[in-house]
Amino acid sequence: MTRRGGATVSAEADPLSPSPSELRRWGLDPSWSRRVTFPDVDGGQLNWHVLDTGPGPKGTIVCVHGNPTWGYLWRDVLATLSPGWRVIAVDQTGMGYSQRPGPRHLGQRVDELVRFCRQEVDGPVVLAAHDWGGPIAGGAAAQLDVRALVLANTALALPEGVRVPPLIAAARSLSDLICRRTPLFVAGSAAMTDRAHRAALRAPYRSSTRRAAIAEFVADIPVRPGDRSSTDLARSAAALDALTCPVLILWGARDPVFHDRFLRDLRRRVPHARVERFADAGHLVCLDEPVGAVIASWLDRSLQAPNVAADAARGDETAAPPLRSVLAALDEHRDDPSLVYQGPDGSLTWSDLAERSSVAAWVLQASGLHPGDRVSLLTPPGVELLVAAMAVWKAGGACVVADASAGLVQLRRLIRGAAPSIVIGTASTLTAARLGRFAPGARLAAFASKPGVIDLHTAPREGAFVPVEFRADDEAAVVHTSGATGPAKPVRYSHGALAAQRDTLANLWDIEPGDAFTTSFGPFMLLAPVIAMGFVRPDFDVDKPSELTFDALAAAARQARVTTAWLSPAAAQTVAGTAGGRHLALGLVLLAGAPIPTSLVERIQEITEGEVRTPYGMTECLPITDGVDPLRRGPFAGTCTGRPLANCVVDIVALDDPRSPSLGDGAWGEILVSAPWMFDGYDARWSADSETSIDRDGRRFHRTGDVGYLAEGVLFQLGRAAHVLRTACGPVTSVGVEEPVAEALGRPVAAVAVGPAGTSVIALVLGGEGDLRLAPGSLASRARAASSHQIAAVLEGRLPTDRRHQSKVDRTGLAKSVSRFLAGR
Amino acid sequence: MRILVTGASSLLGRHVALQLAERGDVVTCFQRSDSGTGLAQVRGDVRDADALASAADGHDAVVHLAALVAPRATWSDAYGVNVTGTVNAQRAASRCGRFVHVSTPSVAFRNTAAVGAGADSSTYSGRDVYARSKAVAERLVLEEMDVPTVVVRPHLVWGPGDTQLVGRIIERARQRRLVVPDHGRALIDTTYVDDAAAAIVAALDRAVPGSEACAKAWVVTGSDPRPVIDLLSGILGAAGLESSIRSVPGPLAGLAGRAVDRFWRDDEPPFTYFAVRQLSVAHWFDQREVQRVLDWTPRVSVDEGLRRLAQWFRPPGHEITG
Question: Check: CATH 3.10.290.10 for B2-155+191-221+284-299?
C-alpha cells in the first residue's frame, strides 16, 4: 500500500503524493491528483504535484496558493467549476506535495508558473491566486495570455500609512523557529478556518524538512526597498496595474494580516476589478465561503460581456456633462452671514461653514488625504458633521456615513468594510474606533487638539490648499442600507448622482431663500448646504426616531422658517401621539419609509395643516415618486406613493423575473427603478450588484425588492417581494390580504405564509397584546369573512417591528414564529 | 366500465360507488353487511380470497376500500382484513385489468409535524396497529403489480354520515370528554368525503398503462388546512352542540397517551399516543403534483363542508328545538 521507502520513490527530496484515501477524506477526487514534470530555468527538471480536474469546454483555470497552504485551498473551486472548466490547483515548488529542491525567490516562482502554464495549458488561461500567490500570478500575468484573474486576500504592496502586518513581522524575524523547526506557522494558518480543514492543510508539512520552503517563503517577503525580491514585487504590482482583462477580488474581511486597507490598495490598482467581500470570512476565504459559485457566475458573465477595462476606458473618453458640484451652493453663500444650521449643539452660519471646512480640508490634504480616499464620519449630527463632510468633499474624498443606531458591533462592521484612510470623530467615538480597531491603518482626526489625532481646527503653517476638482463619476459617499430588510449593505454614491438628487429635491420642495427644513433622519442634514436651505435639528436622540416629540419639533420649527419636515413613520407616530390637540404650521411634511398607515397621514395633516406626502424611495434611490395624494385609493390594495418624478423610470415586472417585459397598468409585480440620482452600486458586493442591477434597453435599473403596481401613472406599493405569500393558487401580496381585514376589524393585521414556498398557506395575525395564540372562533370567522383569500389560521398577539424604523412589521420573523406555533409540538 | 368496489358500506366506499354509478359505470359492491347504496352487491369478507375472486369475475377494475379501522384491534385481526384482504383484492384485480388501493397517510406518520409535505412520499412508519397493517398492505401492493395500479391515501375523510371522525367527536363532546393538546393549534388538512371519492374515481381513470399516476401512493386532501380546534368546534357547531373542548399541554397529553398504550387493557381506550400525536402536530400536504397527475381538484372547502354537515344534522323543517 504505502510507497514509503519503496523503490518507486527515487529522489529522497521528492515528496510523496497524498494517498487516494486521504484525498477522499479531504473531499478531493483522487483522480485529480497527478504529477507534472517541466523544464526549470537552469535546464533542470521540476516536479510539481497538482490537482487537475481534466478537460472542460469553457477553458482552463490555474490556481496558485499562498504560504503555507497548498492546492487543497481551491477545493470548492475544483469541485464547483469542473467539469465545465478544467481547474488545475498547483502546489508551488517546495510546497504541498511538490518537489523540494531548495530556496526560491519571487522572480523564480513567477518564471516557474509561466513555464508550467506554457507546457500544460493550450491557449489563454484564467489565473486564480491567494495570499502570496497574488504577486506570483500578477507577475506571470504579464507574460501569459490571461483571460481573467481572480485574487483572494492578497497584496502587491503595503498601502500608504500601513505598517508591515505584525504577524508577518514576527514570522520574518523568527522565521526559522516559527516556520520550519516548529509547525507554528502552519498550525496558526490552519487555525484561521474551520476545524474540518485543518488535517488537510497540515498534512504536507509534517516534518521540519518538509516545512523548509515555508520559512524561505516568509524570508522572501520584501519589506524594505533593498530586499532581494522587492524589484520583482514592484514588477508584479506594475503588471497588475496594467492588466486589462476582467479581474475579480474575493475578500475575507476577518483577516489579521491582509485587512481592508489592502483591499483598497488592490482596488485602486485595478479600478475595473469586481469585488466580493465576505464580512464573516477570514484569511482562507476560499475555504470559508462557497467562492466557487461566485467565480463561476462571474466568469460566465464577464467573459461573454465585452472587456470591462476597455469599457471603463471608453467611459473616460466621453466628456461628462459639466457638473454643478455639491459644493456649489456653499461656495455661492461663502460670505452669507445667515444661519445654515441650528441645533442643540449650537449654530453655524454659511460663511463659518465655508471657512471652517476649507481649513479642515487643507488639514486633511496636508495629512495625506488623496482624492478618492474615504473618510469615515463618526461625528454626531450637528456642526461638526457638517464641517467635516464639506471638508472631505473639498479635499476630494468620499464620506463614509454609518448609522450609530445600528449598535457598536454593526458600526464597526460597516466602517471596517469601507476601509477609510481617515476617521473623523469626537473624543469618545475616536476612542471606540481605536480600541475596537474600526479602521486598521487609518489616521484619526477631530476638531480638537489631542496627541496622535489630526487637528482639523488649525490650518497648516506652510503650503497652500490645492482645490480639488471632481468629476461626475467620482465616489462622493458610502452610506448603508438600514438592515431592516436584510443585512445592511454599503451603498456607493457618485458626485453626479448626489448633484442630480439635489436638483430633484430642490425642484420638488419649491425652496425660497431663507427656507429651512428639519428631519428625524440624522445624516439627511448634510443636504442643507448642498440644496441651499437652512436646517434646524430638533432636540432629541437621532438614533431613536420614536423619541421625537411634538414639543421638540415645535421648538425646532420656531427657530427658523421651517417649511419642510422629513419624518420617519416612527417619529411621526410620536409627534402625533404627543400633540394633544395642538397645531404646528408646516408647509410640507414628507413621510418616508412606506407603507405609511393612512390614519397617520390624516393625523399629521390635521396637526400641521400642511401638505403631507409619502414619496417612495430607498437608500439606493431617493426619491422615486412625488408622494402626492397619499390617501388616494387604488383599484387594488396598497399605499399610494404618487407619480414617478421627471427623469425617473419605474417599471413593474413579473415576480422573480426582472428581465421580463413590463407589466401593464394595474398588474402587480416587482418594482424596478432607474434615475440619474440612484446609487452607483453596492461596495465590494459583486453578487448583490449583479442580482439587483438589471440592464433593460441600455438603461441601468435597480431591483427594489418591493412589489407594487401602476394605475393611471400613480405608483402603489404593496410591500416587500420577500413577503409575498407563495400559495398553491399563485403568489399573493401580504398587503393585499391584510388591507381588507384590517379595515373590517379596525386593527392592524399581518398576513404571513406558512409552509414551503409555492404551496404555503396564509395565516393572519391580528395585532394585540401578548404572545401568539389562536384568535377566538367568532373573531376568526369575522376575519375570514372579510378576506377573499383562503385563510388557514387566524392568530392574535403582539406584532414584532424592526429595531431601526420601529414601524415596519417584521414579517419574516413573524412568519417563523407563526409557523412554529401552527406546527404544534 | 364494470367496477367492483370493496368496503362500500363505509362512508367513503358508499360515495365512491355512488359517484361511479352516477356517471354510468356498472358497479358491484362487496362487503359483509348491506352497502345501503341500492346498487348491485355481493355480501362477503375480503379475507375470503375465493369469494372476492368470484365477485370480481367479469369486472374491468377493483377499487379496494375495505379496511379495519380500530386503533386497538389485535394485530391478527388488523393483518387479516388490512393485509390479507388487500392481497386478495389485488389478486382479484389482476384478472380484471385495473386496481385502485385506498390507503392512508398514517402509514408514513412519524409522530412529527408534516408541513406542506410531498404527497408521493414512499417512506413508511406504522406507529400503531392500524397504520402498521396498512403500511404492510401498501408495500405489498406496490411490489406485486400485475395490472395498472394507483394507491390513494385520502387524509382525514369526513362528511355527513361519518361515524369515524365526526361520530367520535360528537360522542366525546356529549360525554364532556373532548380534550385537545395545546388549545388545538396544530394545522391539519382534511378531506371532505365528496372530494376524497372524486379523487379515487380520478385515480381509477388514471390506472392505465403509461400513466404517471401508476405504481405510486398519492396523498389527497382538501388543501384547506385548519387548526385542530377550528375543525372540532366547527363540527360541534354543525351538530348544534355547544363547544366544550378542554385543552391540556401537548407534552402532558403525550405522556397520558403513552400511559394508556402501556396500561389500558380492557375495552377501547379513550385515546392512544398515536391519536394524541396526530392532534398535537401539524400535518398538511403539498397537493400540486397529485392534483396535476390525477387531474382532480377538491371542490368543498372546510367552511362549505361544515355548512353541508349542519344541514345534514338539521334538515330544513326538522329544527331541533329546546
Answer: no
